[in-house]
Amino acid sequence: MQCEELLGRAAGLERTGMWPEAAQVYAEAFRMAAGGRDLTALVRVVRGESNLRRSQGRHEEAEELARLRLEIGERNGLADEVARATNLLAVLRQCQGALEEAQALYHAALEQARQLRDNDLAGVICLNLGVVANVHGDVGEARALYLECIAASVRSGNRGHALMAYNNLGMLCADLREWLESDLYFDRGIEIARRVDDRPMLGKLYANNAEPLIHMGELARAAASLTRAEEIATPLGDSATVALAARFRAVLARLAGDFAEADRHLARAATLAQAEGLELERTEILGGLARLRWEQGRRDEARAALHEARRRFAALGAAREIRRLDEVLAEWETA
Fold first, then answer.
1. pLDDT tens sequence across 251-310
2. What is this structure's pTM?
3. Which of 80, 81, 85, 135 is nearest to 106 (CA)?
4. Gap between the Cα atoms of 129 and 188, Å rounded
5. Nearest to residue 309, comparing CAs of 322, 297, 298, 300?
6. What fold, for 232-335?
7. What residues does each domain of the chain span?
8. What is the DSSP string of 214-279?
């Protein structure tokens, strides 16, 4: 089998969430490309495997491969690869909560992409910068960047980037409590994810869509959406999505008055988030625990948990989340 065929096979396995199998094929392709001194194939293999490791949450391996990509690109004058590797390093810094460093790397990568007139890369960088802007509380900038990502994706034909932008627009509107608009964006993302058979992203979209559905009072639809998310994410080993689904399961249980069940879901979500090093999600879970304790009448514990969540959000530079918690704290102080 030629290296090109192996790369196509690995990409197909990755799209369907068969990550361990994809990693094995990438390893075989790497040996073939290195043995044949095929620089073009080697670059594509390292690019594919580094992105795969990021999807798996294996960030140390992903960073090592990203730095290898950067070195190969710089030594061989491959400006496109340098830009893409820089973007991946920014993504990894973002996952680690180093938002300022991530933002600087994203801007460097975006400048390179614009010089290359690479709409595909510019689209994904706008997507990533939109996430950082949203965390910093700059909602207008985030919305503009997500829409720019969709426009760039239309020009490049990359529907995968567009569906991620729709997912993020859905989350942004949820933050703004624009529930109907949030639901519409998630529905659009789900439609695209089904069309391109992106199962990992489809699982995330189903999990995220539970939030607007809960707030719109469509609890049965929310529960069904979480079931679909869990059915997709669990076989993939996507702990981040399973943790998110567990957090929203806790909300449903709390609304139903089943506080013990809500506690169990939050404990499971916290365990998964801690194992994956998901600091932002861990802090959201802590906020959910605070709300549960408040409804249980354990007011001092609730306030302490919410203050700790606020401290953690501050450490992550999550300005919008801080403002949201401040509103709750102000309400609780007068209760």
1. 999 999 999 999 999 999 999 999 988 999 999 999 999 999 999 999 999 999 999 999
2. 0.72
3. 85
4. 21
5. 322
6. 1.25.40
7. 232-335
8. HHTT-HHHHHHHHHHHHHHHHHHT-HHHHHHHHHHHHHHHHHTT-HHHHHHHHHHHHHHHHHHT-H
